Amino acid sequence: MVDEIDKKILYMLLQNARTPFTKIAEKVGLSEGAVRKRIEAMEKEGIIKRYTIDVEPKKLGYNSITFLGLDVEPTKLLDVARKLSEVKEVRAVYLSAGDHMIMAEVWARDGEHLSKILTEQIGKIDGVKRLCPAILLEEIKNIRNETI
Predict the structure, then answer these.
(1) What is the pLDDT of residues 45-76, one digit of tens each?
(2) How do residues 104-117 score in pLDDT, each as one tens digit?
(3) How many CB atoms are closer than 10 A to CB 37?
(4) Under a CB-based contact definition with an 8 Å cutoff, are residues 13 and 50 in contact?
(5) Can you give the three-state secondary structure of 30-62, one letter per residue?
């Protein structure tokens, strides 16, 4: 179970995963060794799964970010999710409950590129019945900007 100090450590790592342990230690009032042990424990428990970077898609030429809902044949749900995961522009795939059985995040260069991805790749996956794209206009909130 995480306590308030662990939450502060996690928040700092969410802001910048490369934050030195000494800087974290100063902020939370512990020794560098104690911070290191807490982080190692959170890694071991699976609270911290990995360290990564956060990139700006538009700076990489992806100007159309889309959340895509997919309705699929129930017997092919996992097959569709696996095949969807193989599409280069698909950045995340989730099984979901609610309006759609699968949700995916798709990065495309522009509307034309998105259309090709949807019609020539994703729409042709065996078992896909319907695609429901929601093109994102602007990010307002993200966990990186919040406390835990």
Answers:
(1) 999 999 988 888 999 999 999 999 999 999 99
(2) 999 999 999 999 99
(3) 12
(4) no
(5) CCHHHHHHHHHHHHHCCCCCCCCCCCCHHHHCC
Residues paired with 108 in a beta bridge: 64
Coil, helix or strand at residue 68: strand
Instruction: Check if CATH label 3.30.160.60 holds for domain 57-135.
Output: no
Nearest to 99 by CA among 122, 123, 70: 70
Query: What's the rounded Cα separation, in Å, for the pair 119 and 103?
Result: 17
Q: What are phi and psi of 93, to 5 degrees?
A: -135, 135
What is the three-class DSSP state of 80?
A: helix
The residues spanned by each domain of the chain are: 4-44, 57-135
Class of 4-44 per CATH? mainly alpha
User: What DSSP state is assigned to residue 124?
Assistant: G
Q: Please, are residues 84 and 90 in contact by the beta-carbon 8 Å criterion?
A: yes
Q: Looking up tokens 């129930």, which residue turns up?
A: 74
Band the pLDDT of 140: cuts 50, 70, 90: confident
Ramachandran sector of residue 31 (left: φ over 0; alpha: ψ -120 to 50; beta: rest)? beta
